[in-house]
Design goal:
The protein is an alpha/beta fold. Helices cover 45% and strands 20% of the residues. It has helices at 18-31, 54-67, 80-90, 97-108, 112-126, 130-133, 154-185, 203-211, 254-259, 261-268, 284-298, 319-327, 342-356, 369-378, 399-408; strands at 10-15, 34-40, 71-74, 93-96, 191-197, 228-233, 239-244, 272-278, 305-310, 332-333, 357-364, 380-387, 390-398.
């Protein structure tokens, strides 16, 4: 069911974890509804019938009636049976965390790639929940020779149609993703930095101030879903590309992680990952753990990284910064909006880039013109000198490009 983007649409939030519930409230606000009240229970196990025990369900029902709630948003992902039983008992719209996030993503998707990724994730989420979505699943389709075959239920037909739709969308996405992958690979001559972290921690603002970009900045969760890359050059001549990726969140739906191939591509090709955390968060370690967990799922948890705490200007208790520095002694502390600490962070990027780039002097034979073009394309030419043996090339180039040259020259 599509939720109304209306502040008059009142929501009751229900769950077991305080921090996760606070995050869920932000998601409700982002979708344009009004989170009126939160009900937090101590976790004592899950009831298969309706998630909550009868006593707890009665308490939620009382709050729905008292507050005239339009919807109840659960922090846990609900099974089809739980959906059905909860809506029957509460007599209002019931939504779980995953469905809420999917609707927010659908609202903010702008590019064709993002739209395809969202639709695939939505259909994968819908597939096991068709019983909830359709009341006509038990009807018999057609007769002998019908498309569905004798005795095939409408539910089975709908599932097959969804599966076919997902396959078609995935084929389209693969074509777009190949182009994106080629664009990333074309940046071999650059040091590739990828900003990752929770949504709304200021990654886009950081990218804007580091590179002079003009990426949308909005105080909402998942304001932008597309990867944005900007190339910059510092005085030492090392070309650096910084990419802002889709934000993470606690309990990020698996289908979304699998669908966002653009983010996966950028992360897999990155030379350096930058974990951006919110210095003003009560528990930044939770953000850090979530980043590590998602990266492990992507197979990228062993990549080199730097930790950056943004929004230090929003920390009211100044001693908190000292505490964070004591725990994260290798981290960088910045304020993207106030431009505090950005120079030190930039120097750190340059130092990391110089580890992967070096000056190389190579003599090419006169018959190796293709390799001269290769050095021009993938490196920064410092000097070209014609000598009796051929062409002497001095360039500033990445180790990956150099390895390719030595491996394929002969």
């Amino acid at each position: 069911m599509k939720l109304k983007q209306d502040k008059k649409w009142k929501a009751l939030i229900v769950g077991f974890e305080k921090e996760s519930l606070a995050e869920l409230k932000g998601l409700v606000d982002t979708l344009g509804m009004r989170a009126v009240e939160t009900v937090e229970f101590k976790f004592r196990g899950i009831c298969a019938h309706s998630l909550l025990s009868s006593g707890r369900l009665e308490r939620v029902k009382e709050r729905v009636l008292a507050g005239r709630m339009d919807t109840v948003v659960f922090d846990n992902e609900l099974t089809p049976a739980q959906y059905k039983n909860l809506e029957k008992s509460l007599k209002c719209v019931v939504v779980d965390r995953t469905e809420l996030i999917l609707q927010i993503f659908a609202l903010h998707a702008k590019t064709s790639q993002a739209k395809l990724q969202i639709e695939i994730a939505q259909l994968r989420y819908l597939m096991p929940r068709l019983r909830k979505m359709w009341t006509h699943f038990s009807r018999i389709h057609g007769g002998i020779g019908g498309r569905g075959g004798l005795g095939e239920t409408q539910l089975e037909i709908d599932r097959r149609r969804l599966s076919d739709r997902i396959n078609r969308l995935e084929k389209k996405l693969k074509i777009i993703s190949r182009r994106a992958d080629q664009e990333v690979q074309a940046r071999e001559n650059c040091f590739k930095i990828v900003l990752i972290g929770y949504t709304n921690v200021g990654k886009s603002t950081l990218l804007n101030h580091l590179t002079g970009a003009n990426v949308l900045v909005d105080d909402k969760l998942f304001a932008t879903l597309d990867t944005v890359s900007r190339k910059i050059k510092f005085k030492n001549g090392v070309p650096i590309v910084i990419t802002d990726t889709v934000g993470f969140i606690n309990k990020l739906p698996h289908n979304l992680v699998a669908s966002f191939t653009a983010t996966l591509t950028e992360i897999n090709h990155a030379d350096l990952l930058v974990y951006v955390l919110g210095a003003n968060e009560r528990n930044p370690q939770n953000q850090y753990d979530t980043i590590k967990s998602v990266l492990k799922e992507l197979g990228a948890h062993d990549k080199p990284y730097l930790t950056v705490f943004n929004k230090i200007d929003a920390v009211k208790e100044r001693f908190r910064i000292g505490e964070l520095k004591g725990v994260y002694n290798d981290a960088y502390f910045v304020s993207a909006t106030k431009k505090i600490g950005l120079k030190k962070l930039t120097n750190a990027f340059i130092n990391e880039a110089e580890k992967c780039f070096s000056r190389v002097d190579v003599t090419l034979g006169f018959h190796e013109g293709q390799w001269l073009d290769y050095f021009k394309k993938h490196g920064r030419i410092l000097k070209i000198q014609y000598v009796p043996e051929g062409v002497r090339v001095s360039s500033f180039i990445s180790q990956n490009v150099l390895n390719h040259f030595y491996h394929n020259r002969n």
